[in-house]
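Notes, Module 5: Reading structure tokens.

Key idea: the token line is not a picture. It is a compressed description, and you learn to read it the same way you learned to read a sequence, by spotting repeated patterns. We will look at two proteins. The first is printed below with its tokens.
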Amino acid sequence: MTDTIFFYIVHPLIAMVACMGYAIVCNAPRKEVPYCGMAAFICWLTYQLVTRNGGTAFMGTLLATCAATSFSRILSFQRRLPTIVYHLPGILPLVPGAAVYRCITSAMEGGAFDTTLNILTAFKLAGAIGIGSVIILVLPNKWFNIIPRLQRKDA
């Protein structure tokens, strides 16, 4: 039970806070920072659900990217801002930094096999991010108009 709460609540919350910080550093509009964090929360929660239930890291990354990109497209329609405002912070937890770090470390230690294995893993995960993003970004806008757009209050 404790592991479940830790992996399905605490990890996504930490990803959310970290990505909100990234959104602030990248000058996202202040009102949109919590939504950027929600995209990261959904992304990391999806990744945890897939990988903890027998899925591979590639499949988890692909599905989590699709979830974050879909959420970003919905927010983009609702909030009338470009999708990238929510998309980049949303997929940030999936960036394969650990695989790249292991690749550089094994290259410095002289292990050609480990270097090759780690760089291929990093390319595979980066490819999953790209594929998942493109799959959702090429879909028509009307598919993401699930909720009617809220009317702005013009003062």
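Here is the second protein, with the sequence above and the tokens below, as before.
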Amino acid sequence: MGFKVALYEKYAEHATDFASILTKIKAINTEIVLVSGHTEESLNFTQQAKELNVCPKMISMTVGPSEADFRKSLGKDAEYIYIVASWSTQMNFKGYLYENTQEFVTLFKAKFNYDPDYHNASGIADVAVFKDAIERANSLDPQKVRDAIASAKLDTIYGRVEFSEDGQIKGTSVVLQIMGGEIYQVFPNGSKQPTYPVPCWKDRM
């Protein structure tokens, strides 16, 4: 896509020390940093990036920033971080089991007093796919249900569920960004304009 990969590093699951990787990132003045991991690693990476004053124009992560605990733990240090996610509360797909995404979000928040994340939405889609497949197969036979799932073309609050020949779901991702302690969808059809480049740690209010 025209980008130059400046550095590619791997780290162990549950890693706590990112000093070596961050030092390399800082030394070569990397503009964009993509971190693939889970909440624990994302927290440690962000905290140490601030400590070492590593200031790329953009930090994007997979899992972690979309969860409330991440933002609560880091406070203002979570600001401006980008997240690649499979779903957000700002989507509005037609539903099955629920009328649409926004109905699900409203009911979920009323019951649990916090916003759902992609785990919750995916769980609803899982139930919807099984219900649809069992009804179309008119059977609980595992092979018949499996074949019905493979041929699914179902609109859910998680998005359109359809599978390729190798069994992978045909899905799309969204880009989110933390701003003002909240998560906003910034691509596609973002509810807010993304902040880029992001301010360095010392320049933040």
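Summary for the second protein:
- The beta strands are 32-35, 58-61, 82-85, 153-156, 159-162, 174-179, 182-187.
- The chain has two domains: 19-86+173-203, 101-162.
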